[in-house]
Amino acid sequence: MAMGTVRYWAAAKAAAGTHEEPYDAGTLAEALAAAVSKHGRGGEFERVVARSSFLVDGTPVGSRPHESVTLPEGGVVEVLPPFAGG
């Protein structure tokens, strides 16, 4: 397990009710499951996270399975929902 920070942007921030919070997880999948459990399964937060992109210490996760993305000690996970605009 590693400890670090999850940062939420735009709709993810609104749904979580916070800009950031700590994680204590070994993988991205574990960190996201803990966050969804904390902020409510089946609610807006879970829907936003399901369609979000993620960065781990600035590196895009892309299509990698979240179970395969190891989180570093002191790392930062960015949750980036789809953005609208032009």
From TrEMBL:
InterPro entries: Beta-grasp_dom_sf, Mopterin_synth/thiamin_S_b, ThiS/MoaD-like. This is MoaD/ThiS family protein. It comes from Actinomadura spongiicola.
